[in-house]
Amino acid sequence: MLFDMDGTLLDSERVWDIGLRELAWSYGGELSDDARLAMVGGSMETSMAILHDDIAQPWRDAQTSADALITRMAELYQTELRWRPGARELLDAVHDAGIPAALVTNTGRYLVDIALAVIGSHWFDAVVCGDEVSVGKPDPEPYLMAARLLDVPVERCVAIEDSPTGVTSALAAGAAVIAVPHDAAVAPRRGLHIVDSLTAVDLPLLADLADRAVPTP
Fold it and tell me: Are 2 and 159 in contact (CB under 8 A)?
């Protein structure tokens, strides 16, 4: 099992929204809704470029902005993280069944470690963060790395995502994918199973999707 974090397991896109809008305000600008939506599921580098362009300050240094945002997000993560509906129950079921699981996120290790300290890390046998791959989502590398760390063929993996960026990454890697759209709409695609909530996902569904991904000899 391969789980995205922000917006999928945790209602942290709401928290990112606070941090990103505060950053724009600190620069004397206001982040538009369209720009914020374009950031969902993306890398820090991409998000900073979108923010700077959106507030008409493309000359700003991306790393300086990212550092300021991460400092604020570290504070927010410790107090504002909430589970998405059904997320904790699904993690418990996967863990109790002994199914290998990885967390696969574009968020950097520093913030991920804070999140895991808050919610617990025992559900995950591996963690792949955005600053631990050469190319983040929508590239397939994060999901390919996670499958290797679990020592499971990616074609036998089911990934759960909430954004078009994450879905593209997981499908390109070769995993079966469940989409739980949250802030951004996800269009139907081959190999994609769309649900309204993680409360609709159970072990029989995961087994069925994994079995369908591998042709019977």
Answer: yes
